[in-house]
Amino acid sequence: LFPPVESSSIGRIIGGEECVPHSEPWQAALYYFDKFICGGILINETWILTAAHCKMSNIQICLGDHNRMVHEGTEQWRHAVKMCIHPSFNSITYDNDIMLLKMNSPVVINDYVKLITLPTEPVADNTICNISGWGSTISPGEMYTDVLMCLNVTTVPASDCQGFYENDSITDNMLCAGNLEGGEDSC
Fold first, then answer.
1. Computed from CA positions of residues 170, 175, 180, 184, in that sequence, does the dihedral angle turn out positive or negative?
2. How far is the C-alpha of 59 from the C-alpha of 52, rounded, in Å?
3. What is the separation, in whole angstroms, between the first and last Cα of the chain?
4. Is residue 149 part of a domain?
5. How far apart are alpha carbons 77 and 113 in whole angstroms?
6. Containing domain of residue 61, as a range?
7. Which of 8, 10, 11 has the alpha carbon at shortest distance from 131?
8. pTM for this one?
9. Those residues with Cβ within 8 angstroms of residue 124's Cβ, 6 or more apart along the chain or in another chain
10. Domains in the chain: how many in total?
11. Could you tell me if residue 70 is inside a domain?
């Protein structure tokens, strides 16, 4: 889902490093009351793109954040007023695991909150992509990070990725990326 990066340089982000603060201004943190549940990206002033498995009632959305535990003065809070889940989402296989969240009011675009530029064509195999999030930094297990983490991963052909999953769980609707030798990954 994330655009390719230049050749320079309930989720997980394994093997990443702390992002340069506010270098991912489209990154959203989703909360159920005060509990962090998922990440998302800002695709326009009123809509967030996230995963369908993140569906909860009363989702609060924070944009412009870097350290979730520190009030930085750059945050903009909204709440979701509408959820549009892909009609073919399968909660068992995670096929079509995509959802749009409409916020109660538009965000203010500034240095800390910006729209992401989505690719206009399918991402080719072996493309370097940037991922970011506040997900768990270990697997198995959970150890969530307070600061936004970043990682560059390479897209992998679905046929190569399929061998790591049981029951033909990789579909044409999924993008596989990471390091097949392990140590770097995101869910």
1. negative
2. 13
3. 12
4. no
5. 11
6. 27-103
7. 11
8. 0.86
9. 155
10. 1
11. yes
3-class secondary structure, 125: coil
pLDDT at position 172, please? 84
- pLDDT digit string (tens) for 14-26? 678 899 999 999 9
Q: Which two tokens stand for residue 35?
A: 């509990």
- Tokens read off for 165: 């999953």
Q: Which amino acid is at 15?
A: G
Confidence of residue 177 (pLDDT cuts 50, 70, 90): confident
Angstrom CA distances, 124 to 8, 77, 82, 158, stand at 18, 35, 32, 11
Q: Which of 57, 29, 64, 26 is nearest to 44 (CA)?
A: 26
* Residue 187 domain-assigned (yes or no): no
Cα 94 to Cα 27, 37, 44, 175: the distances in Å are: 22, 17, 25, 12
SS (H, E, C) the chain: CCCECCCCCCCEEECCEECCCCCCCCEEEEEECCEEEEEEEEEECCEEEECHHHCCCCEEEEECCCECCCCCCCCEEEEEEEEEECCCCCCCCCCCCCEEEEECCCCCCCCCCCCCCCCCCCCCCCCEEEEEECCECCCCCCCECCECEEEEEEECCHHHHHCCCCCCCCCCCCCCEECCCCCCEEC
Indicate which CATH number applies to the domain containing 58: 2.40.10.10
Helix boundaries (H) for the chain: 158-162
- Tell which residue, 143, 177, 133, has the closest CA to residue 38: 133
